[in-house]
Amino acid sequence: MAKTRSKNVGKSQIPNKKTKKKGLNSSADVRKTKSMEEILGVEPVELLDDEEDRVGVAAYDQPPLSPDSSLRFLKRQDDIAVDFGYFLAADKECQNSISKGIQASPPVLRAEPVMRNLESAFKSSNKEGKVKITMDDIEEEVAYWKSAIVCYVLGANPPLAVLEGFARRIWKDKVDKIGMVSYGVFLIIFTSIKDRDDILAGGYIFFNKKPVIMKAWDRNCNVKKEDIRTIPIWIQLEDLELKYWGQKSLFKIVGQLGKPIMVDEVTRERDKLLFPRILIEVSMEQEFPSLIYFENEFGIDVSVVVNYEWKPILCKHCKGMGHNSDDCRKKEAKKQEWVGWKPKNQNATAEASTSNQYTALQNGEDYELQRKEDRVTDEIREEEEDRRLLWKELEGLRTNEPWVVLGDFNDIVEKGERIGKRAHFTPTAFRECTIKCQLEDVKYGGSYFTWNNRQQGDDRIYSKIDRVMANPSWLNMYPIAEALFLQEGLFDHTPVILTVYPSLPSGRKPFKYFRMWLSSPHYQKQVADSWKGSVVGTKMYQIVTKLKRLKPVLTAINKHGFADVQGEEMRQEKEVREQYAEKHKVLISFLHQKSKLNWIKNGDSNTSVFHSSIKERTRHNRILSIVNAQGERVDDQEKITKAFLHYYKELLGTSMIGRQRVKNSVMKEGPLITTTHAETLMTDFSKEEIKAAMFSIPRVKSPGPDGYGSYFFQDNWDLVGDETCEAIASFLKSGNLLKEINSTVITLIPKIKCPNKVSDFRPISCCNVLYKVATKLICSRLKNIFPEIVSLNQGGFIKGRYITHNIMICQDLIRNYGRKESKPNCMIKLDLQKAYDTMDWDFLEEMLHAFEFLEKFIRLIMTCIRTPRYSLIFNGSMHGFFEAKKGLRQGDPISPLLFVLGMEYLSRIMSKIGRKEEFGYHERSAELKLNHLSFADDVLLVCRGDFKSIYLLMQGLKLFTNTSGLTPNKGKSAVFCSGMEEREIKRVLDMTGFSRQDAPFKYLGVPICARRIAASDCVILAQKMTKKIKYNSHVLESNHGPP
């Protein structure tokens, strides 16, 4: 964040008179703030009370402190307070002494500069004939050494030649001269003071895994090695909410580990939002916990995972650095004498690595410290040739026997496996090799990218070049295997651990209806006998009881005829194949002898692509280990279950605190429910409508907790149809719903290729079919009135509106972005964090009332929303049971429409903001008066590229957040600017907390470009299609075995 100071520091005051604030007339009226949390504390002016308005504006009158100045300011305030207290006490004592006629000395402020000057003034020397050196005498020499640093390697004493080669290798032309001032202590002069400061601020360098201690030279600098008891190290905090990324909060949190020194520039400037990075000073002998806790603003304990980029290794025997007690040389009984020998033209080598993620270093291997560019080029060519030879060797080794290959392949399979601003992708033979050999990745976890080039800023590149791959035979032999890629630490590659689990403990297997049971000769009679038994109770209770009573009957049918249906099918297929092979062998022999043909060969056994895909999906979705809330990776199934249950109970089982109510003045910005709409919604449903809804549910959809999918009801409609219709109609008319009907199973689907945390899985709700039919019927009425009450800005799940409309509008808005002559415009692409899971129930109920739905209809909707109970299902078993207090279920037919209903509040807020005089529209949407665009939870905010307009949009967004519970994900939300000054863009980024991005970007799955779309923009899509086509073709070819 750029450092700025107000011209009126300390002069601005909050007026006592309660006058209505008219808003900020220009961007200069708004002070630069540290984060979105501060600026969004202000809501649209006309919606605020005067008191809240004054509090919000007061925040802008406070000048910001920089990360460096804030600590000095606090310390200076404490020193002034103590010093002034002493001064007042001394002054009072002096006055008392004078009043009594006693001679007294006047009080003196004890501030550090004053005391230092006094101490120097009263010092004297008894020596005579001394020569005094003045500042003028040393000025020239001080200026010469001012750009130098003093450094030494902690735990090692490298020769000058080695250290010089090491320094010039990593800092290149920034180094001017290098000299040794004492044994193991070096003085490195840089070409400028700026280069020196960049090196010192860039992070701590490691020489052969030992830290290099560096400090700037000054006239009082000690050039001897110090007895190091404390050292600075960089740490990273995982999954820390962005509101705690301020320096004051970070220093408090990490203060438990050591003395905070600074945050790195990337964290301070909010350029990357993966994790905050802080430099702290720690004791050599202290513990280094992987988890720390702090109490948040609501009094709740929050856990934070700590990653140490480097930890000191302290020998317990000699108390030395850089080795442990097992490797300590001082434990040797007999002292050895070492003789040095250096042959001619011998190059000094050293291993270079760094703990600083953004410091420029080479690739982390043993480097020859020589300057021969041609050798590097030759090595690259040789490396590419070696890789081609390796792929050929692998293709020659392929086999149908179990086969696993692991290591550094030094190549990637697809474009997404290498990222970085300067990263490029060129298709190689490696992908073809993996397809031909039928090698696929063993399920993996930990770090997705396994190598980085340890460069700084835009030069940094991450790649997935280390893999553990196996063929289908190996994967079938070890179906429960996982490759865990650890953090690279001091290396540029990540270590990997391949774990083969013997088996997974079988948990509670849920009942599931299978259509194959229809083929049983006993099915029709036994099902009919069970169903026709009388049950006393409501229509809903009767059908629930009959479904429960039918489960043992169906289980018995499965046990007697279908217990091992796959094994039985395989045995029968084997017998038939053996008979066929014998007959076919006779025929081939006859044809061979008759026609003299020698090219006819016996076919190999066929493999099923279908079964392979099922097994691959099962392996990918199986959860073998997970990182829990404490930051520990656990592979015990009970601990994995506990981690997931804890997460979802916290996510869904807690309600929003301090929520603002829906404002009727905002809802009046658009149409409401009419009498005709209300009558349409409350009309009774016919049996034909209920049957149509039942048969519209795809048969392949997963069943709910009762295990009965739509297959059962569709196959047995003549038997169960009438009672099913009566039960569903009774709920829709009375609004009474049994808890068994609204129970839900959450199945976990990985959101990313390498899921490590619980949050890396997407929860999909599997509802019971009876409930889904009821909500589908409600949706059939709602969707007819939504086009009339939902703003045109919303394109998702509305009849007559299509996703292509949003895509075309977005493409038109981004046109000409990046051109120098373009007018200032801004687009903000929002990503709402856990959108469906965090929507507040009270907010939805208030929205239904604000739309003026009938009370009976509101009760029906809220019964559907408020009564679900959840269980989790993963690894084939059901786990836990808990209730929710917020959120909409992904998998419930009514959830998308209710979500759109909630998002309408944002649309109407933005509509109100758009009519403010100080708001400026986007250049290409001014005629349409368009300042936002939505497709369900995908939101675009657009406006003129000035701070005030963007600030107003953020105010509206904050009001929506405080009311609905939906919060933008700052790590995934992005700002796109065109024609704006860099200073203004900087203020916008600081205010929003979002990252800046440039076109092209993806919107609704389609690449959006400011220019004509190029072939390179569609590379990933083409790769996905090509990969599937080639994989299936090679699988089919493999049915004939390797050549």
From TrEMBL:
Coiled coil (residue ranges): none
Pfam hit, one: DUF4283
PROSITE patterns in the cross-refs: RT_POL (PS50878)
CDD domains: RT_nLTR_like
Region of interest (Disordered), residue spans: 1-35
Domain named Reverse transcriptase: residues: 730-1008
Designated name of the protein: Reverse transcriptase domain-containing protein
Organism for this UniProt entry: Cannabis sativa (Hemp)
